[in-house]
């Protein structure tokens, strides 16, 4: 926890400094310290995304950024504003702050942390954005903007990858500045994501801020649109946020076209970034095929699509079985899945109906536009991959609309305290969670409370790997574990080696260095035998 407090002491002033620079240049979307942190994150994210095309986000980049941010923080005198704000805060801020730091100190347990988040951060910090990286590991094609920001601060400011804690502080400051206490009710659920650089956390936090600003009558929709594009760049499944802002700009604030420009520029950077790493504009959707040389193999993309459909049904049916479903069977099997996920699906549909009835009753243009945005997002999710984690944010949006003006500070703080205690029990004694929710798979990876957390966050360390070469690619394979979270680059997880072998292909360097990127090529029979030996060796050691 002491390490995390140190990170906050460094990063919050740095981001406030960049937020001050942003606001003096482009204006304010809202007042207060929290708005400066958010715009600071926006500023650094855009700068580092551009830099990462050309250079790794190494310690030199981080030192330069931290120095510039601190210089702005002190030279503009913003430290006076921060001190005045912090000294005025009471239990409604400090209690959730202590809870957030405590929960951030636990070991990561989300599987994506090991299979996607950490490898992405390593690549960006050590190499930068790599063209066709999805040919090495399909998941790396996502390269969320949040992971670019995390990579830049991973050298010394935040080596434990707890940037979500900074986002939580910005959110708490916003709650106290605007006195929107209902968000305290949501916060304990979000704290489940705070141990990892999970893009879900900042995407939801920033979307709540945008939602609140529009409900409070904020007409600076140009900057709100830019931040909504940042939300989309962090997590594309949050597409309802920019849709809602655009609908507001067109039908309520009637904004001029020029205010769209900064957001459109940011969107173009995001789309180009995904073209660069994945070969298509939005991961993992195969739209706008430009025939790029480094796009993933069609067979792998087909397998990925089938897996997404299977995950929609919690892997309880094969792809072949799902393909034979009638429309009624699709709906019935999704709504009534065995376990907690089926109940979440049913609750999701009921919640949308409740939202529709509420919108009809209120006859508010703002609420109708929000419903339309959420409904469009829900349809897109249902069409592509209706996994419950892709529409959790919809529940929070509906709860916000229903109880926005009905949740007092006292009641919100009380609910936060109760939910936080329950969360603390689950994280500290994970067997309780496993017993209560046996189908909650991440619960199997929770380690419980460790006294070391009082000074530094709990992390995992494996560093067991073997090195092989196929064609011109020399790569590392993790041993005794399925994910390459701390394996030296370039690393390929056994699962992706197996998928490549099944497709009869293997990744290759496009040039002579990792920075030049990857393509795929068909492999010979001899190479197939060689790759199968790699998998057999891994399976034998993993079994032992």
Write up this protein.
This protein is mainly alpha-helical and 544 residues long. Helix content is 62%, strand content 4%. It contains 23 helices and 4 strands. It has helices at 2-26, 33-51, 59-75, 78-88, 91-104, 111-126, 145-152, 163-178, 182-190, 200-215, 221-234, 240-251, 261-278, 298-312, 319-323, 327-335, 340-362, 365-384, 392-403, 409-428, 430-436, 494-503, 525-543; strands at residues 465-470, 473-478, 505-509, 518-522. Strands 1-2 form a two-stranded antiparallel ribbon. Helix 1 (2-26) packs across helix 2 (33-51) and helix 6 (111-126) packs across helix 7.
What's the helix count?
23
Gross morphology is globular
- Largest pleated sheet: 2 strands, antiparallel
Uncertain ranges? none
Strand adjacency order, main sheet? 1-2
């Amino acid at each position: 926890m002491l390490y995390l407090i140190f990170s906050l002491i460094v990063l919050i002033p740095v981001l406030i400094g960049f937020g001050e620079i942003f606001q003096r240049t482009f204006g304010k979307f809202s007042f207060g310290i929290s708005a400066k942190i958010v715009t600071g994150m926006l500023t650094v994210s855009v700068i580092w995304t551009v830099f990462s095309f050309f250079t790794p986000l190494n310690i030199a980049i981080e030192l330069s950024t931290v120095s510039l941010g601190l210089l702005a923080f002190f030279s503009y005198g913003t430290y006076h504003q921060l001190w005045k704000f912090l000294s005025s805060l009471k239990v409604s801020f400090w209690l959730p702050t202590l809870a957030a730091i405590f929960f951030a100190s636990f070991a990561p347990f989300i599987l994506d942390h090991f299979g996607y988040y950490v490898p992405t951060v390593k690549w960006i910090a050590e190499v930068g954005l790599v063209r066709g990286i999805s040919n090495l590991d399909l998941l790396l094609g996502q390269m969320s903007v949040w992971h670019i920001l995390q990579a830049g601060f991973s050298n010394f400011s935040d080596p434990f990858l707890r940037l979500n804690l900074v986002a939580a502080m910005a959110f708490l400051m916003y709650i106290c500045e605007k006195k929107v206490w209902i968000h305290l009710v949501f916060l304990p659920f979000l704290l489940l994501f705070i141990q990892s650089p999970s893009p879900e956390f900042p995407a939801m936090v920033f979307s709540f801020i945008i939602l609140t600003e529009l409900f409070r009558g904020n007409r600076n929709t140009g900057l709100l649109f830019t931040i909504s594009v940042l939300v989309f760049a962090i997590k594309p499944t949050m597409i309802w946020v920019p849709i809602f802002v655009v609908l507001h700009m067109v039908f309520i604030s009637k904004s001029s076209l020029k205010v769209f420009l900064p957001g459109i520029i940011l969107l173009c950077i995001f789309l180009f970034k995904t073209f660069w790493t994945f070969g298509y504009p939005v991961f993992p959707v195969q739209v706008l095929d430009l025939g790029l040389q480094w796009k993933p193999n069609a067979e792998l993309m087909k397998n990925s699509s089938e897996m997404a459909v299977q995950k929609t049904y919690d892997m309880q049916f094969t792809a072949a079985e799902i393909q034979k479903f009638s429309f009624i069977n699709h709906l019935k099997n999704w709504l009534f899945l065995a376990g907690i996920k089926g109940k979440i699906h049913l609750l999701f549909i009921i919640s949308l109906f409740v939202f529709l009835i509420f919108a009809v009753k209120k006859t508010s243009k703002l609420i109708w536009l929000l419903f339309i945005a959420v409904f469009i997002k829900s349809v897109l999710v249902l069409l592509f991959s209706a996994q419950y984690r892709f529409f959790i944010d919809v529940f929070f949006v509906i709860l916000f609309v229903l109880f926005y003006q009905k949740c007092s500070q006292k009641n919100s703080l009380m609910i936060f305290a109760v939910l936080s205690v329950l969360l603390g029990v689950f994280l500290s004694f994970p067997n309780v969670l496993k017993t209560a929710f046996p189908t909650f798979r991440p619960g199997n990876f929770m380690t419980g409370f460790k006294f070391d957390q009082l000074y530094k966050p709990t992390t995992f360390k494996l560093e067991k790997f073997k090195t092989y070469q196929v064609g011109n690619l020399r790569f590392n394979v993790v041993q005794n574990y399925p994910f390459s979270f701390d394996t030296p680059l370039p690393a390929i997880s056994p699962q992706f080696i197996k998928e490549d072998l099944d497709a009869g292909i293997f990744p290759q360097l496009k040039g002579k260095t990792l920075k030049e990127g990857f393509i795929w090529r068909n492999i010979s029979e001899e190479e197939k035998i060689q790759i199968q030996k790699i998998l057999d060796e891994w399976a034998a050691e993993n079994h032992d």
